[in-house]
Amino acid sequence: MNRTLNVTALLLAAGLGGVAAAQTQTSYRGPKVTLTYLHGFTGADRPVMERLIAQFNAAHPNIQVRGQAQPWGTTWQQLPSLVASGRAPDVVVINEDQITNFIARGAVSPLTNAELQSAGISKSRFYGPLFKTADYEGKSYGVPISSVAYVMFYNKDLMKKSGVTKVPTTRAELLAASRACTTDRNGRKPGQSGFDARSLNTWGISLYNNWVGSRLAYAAILQNGGSLVDSKLNASFNSPQAVEAVQFLVDLVQKHNVARANSTEEAELAAFSQGKVCFFPSGQWYTDRFEQQKMNFGIAFVPRIGTKQDAAWGGSSHMTLPRQRAGYDANKRRAALAFVNWMTSPNQNLAWTEAGSLPVMATVANNKKFEGRPIAGVFAKLGNIYATSGFPWGGQVLGPFDNAWANAYSGKQSVKAALDAGVSEANKQITQARKTFQ
Amino acid sequence: MLAATFGAVPPQSVPESAVSLSVPGKAARPREARRRRGGREGGAITPYLYLLPFLLLFLVFVVYPVGYGLFVSLHRWDLLAETRPFVGLEYYRNLFDPETPQSQFFWNSMKNTGFFTLISVPLLIGASLGLALLLHRPIFGRAFFRSVFFLPGILTVSVMGILWRWMFDNQIGLVNAVRTDLLGLQPLPFLSTEGLAWVPVIVGTVWWTIGFNMTLYLAGLGNISQSYYEAAEIDGATPWAKFRFITWPLLAPVTLFVFVTTVLASFQLFGQTLVITSGGPNRTTQSTIQYITEEAFSNNQFSSASAMAFMFGLAMLIFTYLQFRIMARDARGEG
User: How many other C-beta atoms lie within 10 A of the C-beta of residue B46?
Assistant: First the structure.
């Protein structure tokens, strides 16, 4: 009897302590409010998100969050009319390819430093470029919750068979390793007489023609000190640095014969799974698939193809507070910021990585849980991942850019001609788009 | 099917008595006249009241969106913008100004859509008629083959698209596997070669939609009386002559229906190219609807997209008008 009482008392104390701790954590102490939270995590990540929301609600008696999951595309189409009619949800998750456009059109509200501070959100908690993805004209508009990145998968078995002992990290190493991995149907190596580049048995690196394939060109351009747009936000991906970087990639096919010409993402993915290609640059989202296949593979950061800096493409989701009608309850905004803070805190972000996201902050990346996992191979450089954001005309820039990559890779146009044509098309479209923002 | 039956009967062969029986006799007329004069059984407004529910739906779902779309196309319009200035015909002029991307890409997409229609419609009519002729005869496993040819039609466009993208993949597709492994040829990069990229789109579309047209033709064939063929056989007609002078003319109403629906479906090309080629390479398979979608939802140029939609609608309207003219003439000519 006595023991039971003691246990009950202990449990009670622990429970109270827990509640107290949770309440001191949050910045919101106002009256009870209900928040609507719109996000696009509709796949395998949905139950994880719903579990997190339930945990938040349990720990915060005065804030009730109602999550609503719907496909991203639906949100992009609905958000303008929701904001215009003053019926926007209190919190909306927006992805990196849309966010600058919505910021420039005034759909989301800036988060002031004072607000962030009082909610306990510290910018320095996150990877720098990741947080800046939702910045525009010196203001911050969103807090990163989820992130994906372009990485380089490598096949350990084929590398060993080809005598490649080190994962390449530089341009020269990448070329040498790729050569070692390449053999034609008759076992000849590139450069040997009789080598048939059209029927490769194994090859060094996967290049392919769709938008995912073009993200390697994006990484190479950034690494070389180039960029998609210049300081006036006009397209500039035909700068000498950009041409030089993309030329190296195209040469891997056309000059060095260590990659297949005219290939598709599906074909290269299948080839990598079958052990025919050493290096497969693509989204980190394929990790689960290769793990389930029990492949002997590793994950590395995209090698330094350029000379200036480390860089790779990343995609991300950011929690934003949409613009609301006049007279919007200030308590709701404070509560929403408390929710954003909680959801983007280390514990929650660690739980969220189960859904396939990369850590959004170094604290989480350092967690023991990731030790020995292939994905940990890129964690040291998560601060060098850059989204295609910062200009309000994402479609106008990325459409022509992806098309330019496809034309250069297929050899339809020279690299210079393809990038020039892409920039010219993009800038015509940007000129038109600018009128909408005046 | 009813249309096919009536179309199959030449008007001169209908006996006079049948006509007079089927038309209401003189006895019916006074009653109608009384009703019209009396007006107590319902005022002049009654028929319009019955039409009202449809009128409401028509106003809400057709007139209002069309009017709103026209408004959008004449303004620099964005829901979130504070001002939405009137710009007149600027977005329509863009379509005819060779300096703008819109004129380049819109007419390119119109050309692509037209090309697709031109190639796929004859294939879809010819092949479905051929299949229907084969499967109309009492061959072994007829019901099975009818179902097999009809089945692809129940797939969604994404399933069908992914399937044919895989079949024609540049590297790992079945078509290229056959070319390289069985025939010893070089693989053809179907998906990334201008011109060749149409092959998976058109083959896939024919495979996907042929069953529906085939079913219509089978119904039409079932309504042709065997007595015509028996009479022709007595006169010593060849199989070709029987097809040319009996089957083909008596299928004319079905063919017209199939033609009109297939042309309209082909003009609405969207999903197939979106999934199989994403409009590439170099926009050579981009359909008009895909380009309009890109302009609206990728470039956020809603006014420009609306203007294009109106131009596309206008082109469809002109085309449909011409089609009706030809239809009317054919209907008169062939009864």
Answer: 11
DSSP letter at B95 equals T
CB pair distance less than 8 Å for A267 and B191: no
Q: Do the chains contact at B294 and A83, CB–CB below 8 Å?
A: no
Residues A158 and A93 placed together within one structural domain of the fold:
no
CB neighbours of B16 closer than 8 A, spacing ≥ 6?
none
Q: Per the structure, how many domains does chain A have?
A: 2
- What CATH number corresponds to the domain at position A278? 3.40.190.10
Q: What are the contacts of A121-124 at 24+ separation with CB within 8 A?
A: A121/A337, A121/A340, A121/A341, A121/A344
User: Do residue A120 and residue A253 come from a single domain?
Assistant: no
CB contact under 8 A, B294 and A399: yes
Say what the pTM is: 0.85
CA angle A270, A310, A277 (to 5 degrees): 20
CATH architecture entry for B2-17+97-334: Orthogonal Bundle (1.10)
Chain A residues near residue B294 by CB distance under 8 angstroms: 395, 399
What does the alpha-carbon distance between residue A100 and residue A134 come to, in Å, rounded to a whole number? Answer: 7
Number of A/B CB contacts below 8 angstroms equals 92
Do residues A203 and A292 both lie within one domain?
yes
Give me the torsion for CA of B4, B5, B10, B12, rounded to 10°.
Answer: -140
Structural domain contains residue A11? no
* Tally of CB atoms within 10 A around A258: 28
* Chain B residues whose beta carbon lies within 8 Å of the beta carbon of residue A73: 297
A266 contacts on B by Cβ (under 8 Å): 165-166, 169, 172
Nearest CB to A105 within list B80, B100, B101: B80
List the end-to-end C-alpha distance of chain B, in Å, as a whole number. 16
Q: Which of B77, B171, B297, B308 to mutate to test the interface with A (most CBs of A within 10 A)?
A: B171
For residue A205, the enclosing domain spans: 150-314+387-436
Query: Same structural domain for residues A289 and A154?
Result: yes
The residue ranges of every structural domain in chain B are: 2-17+97-334
Chain-chain contact of B281 with A76 (C-beta, under 8 angstroms) = no
Same domain, residue pair A293 and A394: yes
Specify whether A212 is located in the same domain as A230: yes
A268: closest chain B residue by CA = B171
Distance from CA of B66 to the nearest CA of A (A): 18
Distance from CA of B172 to the nearest CA of A (A): 6
Q: Tokens for B159?
A: 């399933």
**Minimal CA separation from A154 to chain B, in Å:** 20
Kindly state whether residues A327 and A209 are assigned to the same domain: no
Q: Report CB contact under 8 Å: A101, B300.
A: yes
Would you write out chain A's pLDDT as a tens digit for each of its 438 residues?
344 444 444 444 444 434 434 444 567 888 999 999 999 999 989 999 999 999 999 999 999 999 999 999 999 999 999 999 999 999 999 999 999 999 999 999 999 999 999 999 999 999 999 999 999 999 999 999 999 999 999 999 999 999 999 999 999 999 999 999 999 988 899 988 889 888 899 999 999 999 999 999 999 999 999 999 999 999 999 999 999 999 999 999 999 999 999 999 999 999 999 999 999 999 999 999 999 999 999 999 999 999 999 999 999 999 999 999 999 999 999 999 999 999 999 999 999 999 999 999 999 999 999 998 999 999 999 999 999 999 999 999 999 999 999 999 999 999 999 999 999 999 999 999 998 876
